[in-house]
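Annex B, item 7. Sequence and structure tokens for protein A, then protein B.
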Amino acid sequence: MRTLKCFVITPSGKNPPIRLVEDEKYGLSAAPSSCEQVHTSNSIPLDFQKVYKYIITPAITQINVAHTDLRIECTRGEDLPQGGNIVSQFLQQICRADITITDVTGFNPNVLLEYGIRLSVRDSLNILICHDGARLPLDIADQRCIPYRTDDMSVGTAAIAQIVATIINSLPQLLKQQALETSDNLFRRTVEVATGRTLERRLTAVFDPAPSLLVDLVNEVKRLNDELKKIGVSDNIRAKPRLRDNAWSFLETLAKTLQGDPCGLNKAIDVYKRMTEIEGFNDKRRDVFYILNEICAVDPERQSEAQDYLNKAKELED
């Protein structure tokens, strides 16, 4: 079963309900905290706990029920462990989630900050929701936003249906881990260029074939050395094993670096697999197969692959 992570960015449901009042610029907005009393007749109470319970949770449940081979796990900030650095935990969830659902109702500063971080770091599915009647600030005014109401079943049901449809339409790209954002995303494009990530990605693409080319080069050098040895060429003329040793060291360092990055794990596996193709390293290949077994064993979808690596490692024991 494939699992997708959904992080809900919202004001804490543990806080008292807010009251929405009419604002000339932003429509319905949260009443200022300096207001000791708000006239009930001119305001709308909003409990974010109910939004999560009656809007977001039913939408995610519908998808999980309809897709038996898929499960979306939903998490909020208040669901995170109480120990440790809470800011670090939030950032990890924001960066790693396959899906975010952000409730910008009331323009909570923390929510807007976390949504901005999300836009700048992850090409994935970002869903905006807000109470019906609210108008978005200029910086995100062009983003599609799903309106909801907790006191009107028709609007609430429509919001659930829109969330479900948005996620289902994006599932093909999400399951293939493909980017959903386009170059039209001003936030993403600006951050990519300003921080050098655009150049970094292009360089990564250029050097992506390096492990394969390096393995082919080392194996070709070994083949030539073997041919020279057959015809009796002196050891002083034939290539020394330095290239082979340096190539192995480079690939090993690259694989370990990628393995330490959750987003680079698949590439780390590819590099380790390439290392097992270098001829003349039978003693080290066994250890690499054990490493591949350990990496793949923690992934339920790679159990057969893990067992295959374990079998290959044991064969080299003999």
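Protein B:
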Amino acid sequence: MQRAHRLHRPAFTLIELLVVIAIIAILAAILFPVFAQAREKARGATCLSNLKQIGLASMMYSQDYDERLCLQYYISGASGTAGGSWDVTMAAYMKNTDITHCPSDGLARQNNNKPRTYSWCRGPFGDTGVDSGIALAAIPQPASQIHITERPNYLNMVNFVNYSVFNIPTEMGPYPQGATVPSGPPFHSEGWNFEFVDGHVKWSRLEATIRTAGVTYPRTVQGTVASRSILGTMAVPGGMWTRDPDD
């Protein structure tokens, strides 16, 4: 009687198994950052879409109100108490306040209130950018004038007047309660997303939004007292931060 022979297949050795695990670990280390970058790209695209919708809401508002932008915020009551911010005024045009939050903004807000990532750019000195209720005709280059951009902040919250506006690029970084100096990197590939007065949006590095860093321009600012002049610095920027076409 012939004996049946079993087929013996060689098994993985311990060394071979370790090599396979090492290869998988190397591939994971290469691919995970790529996946993270892809996720951030998607968040950045959502942020740009949010700003685009806000810009369209602003344009629709201005068409209904004699070519004037809405107020940055308004005060109500004889005591001068705060009434509401621009996102309140434009709520009927935006339809959804969720678009005021960038998905990359994970900064916790005071009392866990609903976050608002974006703020209104008033420009240096608070009145050289997009003034409250300004006529569109008073902005010579609306495609070059920053209107609304990212300002993640502990106190930047939906329907909250404080931090709904800001003046200069150094106020844009996220920082915790009680901090006096902004800190933290930009959300989107070392840059921020911006919405301009004409409604278009784009990504830019901060240094590209001012005219020339460190250069003082011996000029006076349009619509301000003669003693004030724009500097080409982050603290007092020219360029896209003022409505003066010479900046």
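Comment on protein B: Residues 14-64 form the longest helix (51 residues).
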